[in-house]
Amino acid sequence: MVSNRDEPAMLRSLLFVPGNRPDMLEKALGLAPDALVPDLEDSVPPAEKAKARDIVASFLPRLAQVGIAVIPRANPASTGLLEDDLAALVGPDILGITVGKIGDASDLGRVEVHVERLEAEAGIEKGRVRLVPWIETARAIVNAYEICSASPRVVAVAFGAEDFTNDMEIERTEDALEIVYPRQVVGVAARAAGVLALDTPWVAFRDSDGLRRDARAARGFGFRGKFAIHPSQIGPINEAFAPTEAELEYARRVISAFEEAEESGSGATSLDGKMIDIPVVRRARGLLELASRSVAPRE
Ligand code: COA
Ligand code: MG
Questions:
Q1: Is residue 229 lining ligand 1, measured as CB closer than 6 Å?
Q2: CB 29 within 8 A of CB 62
Q3: Cys-Cys with 215: which of 33, 54, 240, 266 at CB 3.0–4.6 Å?
Q4: Is residue 8 assigned to a domain?
Q5: Is the dihedral of CA 140, 141, 147, 153 positive or negative?
Q6: Could you tell me which of 192, 257, 205, 252 has the C-alpha nearest to residue 233?
Q7: Is 140 inside any structural domain?
Q8: Domains identified in the chain, total number
Q9: Helix 82-89 to helix 49-66 angle, to the nearest 10 degrees?
Q10: CA 26 to ligand 1 centroid distance, Å
Q11: Residue 299 domain-assigned (yes or no)
């Protein structure tokens, strides 16, 4: 039996599906992102919130059967919807819950209290439901490490560029300079806390070259995955977060140059005019390890 119980091997692509769209949820059953994110927050208009909650709850067992991690998105506590959302979502069919607009550890604590109670009520193991907070306000950027390390339930954090720039009252631009700093903060904070950093969606969903460039840029800031809003984004995102063949070839050459040097008794050596020392070799091994991990069906 395929189960959501295990941590997915990777979270490169996470596909949002608006919770008020049974047609899209149905479609999602046949797609293969690393995670599915049925959304109750900003893709659902206020008048449809309750309906979306019921639709998503009724789809969870079927989504879980597909064998892909399911991480539904709940509305933040400030909306007054969080408790009802969690009551509908927490159960054996999800890997975790993602929650928008977490500003500090106490916001996450409020989520956790309900999750813990609901786990007990559902008779599932305490701590099993993971959390993925959205860091998407100026306050959250200032508190990024606090949020990343607020609970052992946190396995990843998400950076949301649209809400962040909205909160800052600044524009999104072509060169994305306005999100360089927050992306760096989230990448570093996530790494320091030992959780995965997940990047904001690329909203121009017909522009796959732009998506590829944007995902590569995010990878360069330490992000390990990215949200998708359209099925066509899954492939380019998975590719962007996997090492390229050229990177792998170089990593193999680094390792063999280093091993040769080690055999002849020296530590540092060089390859193509660049110094090869222990951190460089570690990175090369890490890259090969990343490439060897698979998201193929988890039995
Ligand atoms: N999940 C599942 N299926 C999706 C999908 C998604 N996120 N986005 C599109 N599809 C489906 C469509 O329903 C359509 O199915 P069909 O061929 O059976 O009719 C097919 O994929 C092709 O879609 P397309 O016509 O190219 O796009 P669209 O105009 O129907 O939808 C969006 C475009 C942006 C409205 C839609 O992709 C969407 O709602 N995305 C999610 C938005 C979201 O969740 N935002 C919140 C996070 S920021
Ligand atoms: Mg948001």
A1: yes
A2: yes
A3: 240
A4: no
A5: positive
A6: 205
A7: yes
A8: 2
A9: 30
A10: 12
A11: no
The encoded tokens of residue 67 equal 């064998």
> Could you tell me if 28 and 130 lie in one domain?
yes
Between CA 248 and CA 233 the distance in angstroms is 24
- Specify whether the CB–CB gap between 255 and 286 falls below 8 A: no
Distance in Å, CA 115 to ligand 2 centroid = 21
**Does the CB atom of residue 255 touch ligand 1 within 6 A?**
no
In which domain, by residue range, is 186 found? 13-240
- Written as tens digits, the pLDDT of the chain (299 aa) is 233 344 566 899 999 999 999 999 999 999 999 999 999 999 999 999 999 999 999 999 999 999 999 999 999 999 999 999 999 999 999 999 999 999 999 999 999 999 999 999 999 999 999 999 999 999 999 999 999 999 999 999 999 999 999 999 999 999 999 999 999 999 999 999 999 999 999 999 999 999 999 999 999 999 999 999 999 999 999 999 988 899 999 999 999 999 999 999 888 899 999 999 999 999 999 999 888 874 333 32
Do 276 and 208 sit in the same domain of this protein?
no
pTM over 0.90: yes
Ligand 2 geometric centre to CA of 27 (Å): 23
Q: Which residues of 31-56 are buried (b: 16+ CB within 10 A; e: fewer)?
A: bbbbbbbbbbbbbbeeebbbebbebb
